[in-house]
Amino acid sequence: MSAEHDRWIGRGEALGRLGVKAQTLYAYVSRGRIAARPDPDDPRRSLYAARDIARLSGEAVAGDEAPQPAARSAAGRGEAELYSSVSVVVGDRLLYRGLDAVQLAETATLEDAARVLWGARAANPFAVLRPRVGATPGGSPRARLYAALARRAEEEPDLATGDAVALRVECARVLDEAVDAVAGPGPRLFLHQRLARTWKIPERDGHLVRRALVLAADPGYDPAILATRAAAAGGACPAAAALAGLAVVAASGPVAEMARAAGWIVAVRRQAFDAARRAQETGDLAGFGDPDWPRGDPRSAALLAAADLPPDLARAVRDGEAAAARPPGFALALAIVARRLELPREGAADLLMIGRLAGLLAHALDQIVDGSPIRARLRYVGPEPGAN
């Protein structure tokens, strides 16, 4: 039995033993519940750990504790089960509806990536849009972004019927108005070009904004996706559901890590001290390593490879990687690119938020049109009634 459980099996056998659809298998891989690796005979395919398949199927696995009773199942442990066809992590690759995100970012605009994530490759929902007249209130770009989503949520037509075509057009309108809120009025350029124009980025460097937005669109799974899907499952429109997810993104670890990484970058550029040694001693070396990508985030490598970094920023990456003995994460890559492009102080976070908006809208759309009920359980553990 031990030898059996140490095997790696193909997708067909894995699906048969689990009794689930392919998207559920991919979700298990994305959440780390099933290990996957490329098939050595065909790198386009993946193999799955038989031990993890057996465990999820309820089979006894040598070395494991006894199976938990039903009350301690996924819902009992506080896990929510989601079904998604938007994105998945397989091995060392992030796939947007089956397309490699890194390869897509080589040429795709955010509009292109959104159409992939929204399942709208046959038709262009952006083609029917018209610019909105009037400025969006708010001081910072993030405040204007939130205000645009809140306004769209209030104005959004009744799409409770789940008409996928109408929902995709609405998602395009939400993303379009959100970028306008951040970038301000101007020519009807591609979304990344509007941002580059506002940030006064030379045309030769505009591709970095485009790449960053596409790569930031969706990480496979994180709490922001759960928040978005829970809101959509509860009846929220795409704009409102995406706003719930963005609020989680803003408070997430990657955004906090960007701020710490920015400080590290400044220290290295000033060369006031041995930044690598000092940061390692104080625990302030942020942005290197990611538990979700033990062999390195392919998005980080792709973005930094395209950035043509000046010597001081290249040194920040090189010294940090040597000190941490881990590759740079995506939050650091965004922070480095933001410095390379001389964006405003919150520019890296703005790139992340706008890119993530396209992906969160995809999850809202997926949940409204095809999503199954989210199975979760709230277990009360507070004081006994009448105890106070």
Task: Describe the structure using short key phrases.
mainly alpha; 388 residues; three-stranded antiparallel β-sheet; acyltransferase activity, acyl groups converted into alkyl on transfer; DNA-bd_dom_put_sf
Structural topology:
Layout: H1 2-5, E1 8-9, H2 11-18, H3 22-30, E2 36-39, E3 42-49, H4 50-56, E4 87-90, E5 93-96, E6 99-100, H5 101-105, H6 110-117, H7 141-155, H8 164-183, H9 191-198, H10 206-216, H11 223-233, H12 238-250, H13 253-270, H14 275-282, H15 298-305, H16 311-324, H17 330-340, H18 347-370
Antiparallel strand pairs: 1-3, 2-3, 4-5, 5-6
Helix pairs in contact: 6-18, 7-8, 7-12, 8-9, 8-18, 9-10, 10-18, 11-12, 11-18, 12-18, 13-16, 13-17, 14-16, 15-17, 17-18
InterPro entries: Citrate_synth-like_lrg_a-sub (IPR016142), Citrate_synthase (IPR002020), Citrate_synthase_sf (IPR036969), DNA-bd_dom_put_sf (IPR009061)
GO molecular function, one term: acyltransferase activity, acyl groups converted into alkyl on transfer
Protein name: Citrate synthase
Low-pLDDT residue spans:
64-77
Question: Whole-number radius of gyration?
Answer: 22 Å
Main β-sheet, in a few words? Answer: 3 strands, antiparallel
Counting DSSP E segments of at least 2 residues, the number of strands comes to 6
| Principal-axes shape call | globular
